[in-house]
Known about the structure:
Layout: H1 22-38, H2 47-68, H3 90-113, H4 123-150, H5 157-167, H6 175-214, H7 219-242, E1 254-255, H8 259-266, H9 272-280, H10 289-292, H11 297-319, E2 329-330, H12 345-358, H13 367-395, H14 399-411, H15 413-420
Antiparallel strand pairs: 1-2
Amino acid sequence: MNSTIDTVAQAPDARPRSAAPFSVGLVGIAAGLLTLWLLRNSTTLDGATRGVLASLAIIATIALHDLFVARVYLRPSAGLAGHAVRPLSVARVAVRLAALASIYAGIGLLYFLLPEYQGTFYEPYWTLLRTLAPYVIVAAPFYFAWMDRRQRDTDDAYLVWGRLLLRGERPANWRPLREMLAGWMVKAFFLPLMTVYLSTNADHLNGSLNTALNAPFTLDSFRFMYDLSYSMDLMFGTVGYLCTFRILDSHVRSAEPTTLGWLVALICYQPFWSVMANQYLRYEGSVFWDNWLISMPTLRIVWGVVIVALLLCYASSTISFGLRFSNLTNRGIITSGPYRFTKHPAYISKNLSYWMISVPFIEPLGWRVALMHCTGLIGINLLYFLRAKTEERHLMNDPEYRAYAEWIGRNGVVARVLRVFG
């Protein structure tokens, strides 16, 4: 989802500053795609490894900009000082490390107990954890030590959680603790999925690229652009769930507070999605868009180009977040890229692409089946509508988002169209 950013004098009715410039995201995705290209012929690296390395290239590129050019750790929203404000306390660092260890242990226990995480489906994620674990173990004490001296708020959520576990000290304010634990639950659910999806898509992208290069300007080109769009989206999704750091001003400000908000978001992902899409909201019929238009080559090309444009808009929406992409949490308000035109470019473009790709209104088995598929897709559209509304209600607690929503109300695509037509 969508930080409080530096307050700078702006021109009247200027677009609110974005927590992540779109141009930096584009440089990041260029680094990620270049990494995938250089590793495309590797016989020793699988899709999971190539996808993770591409994501790490994105993190390195954007983090270097954020730390040394934008210096995001000096933003008020980061809660950090530019210099040490207190002496280092080894005891506080130890308590925070214990709190972090308890969170990892709790998540590990959930993975162990839930049948969903058994089997080989999540193997790319377990490989990622085994790869990153040694680096996390080494880096965590240094990170907490650095934060302990520069963090303006001494009693952060990790320290409060550690004191509760180790000493039984009840916090005066439970909200930061709830937000921190909710943020970790979001990461625990979505990071495995992003890693697995990226692994699969990296392999698909490699195959569709080779096919498209051998047969350009055919349906294979569409398949390549389809895989490319979702690979870019998944790389930045993986990056977002890996990079929740206050030093990068990409930490969680708040988490979705309502049950409905969590429900409509989680239901759009596995294992819930397969149950909903296969049994209750089936919308894909027996006709694919290119087969429907096979006798109309010109319209077929135009239709395919529009689909690709929608998919690229969807991917660009995720790229706009930089290191801050996340469902169900506010990690900084994004106003750049496609978000300068509408508050929900990803949902709009994704749902329109569903209609254009699956063409549920075209069904050789008759109008009743076509109506059933259209009804199913409308149900999916309503799910995303509810996601948009619950996200807006959550983000309206942030004054930066309220300013952005008001600006979109005056300058977004809908406002401009209405002005044209009086």
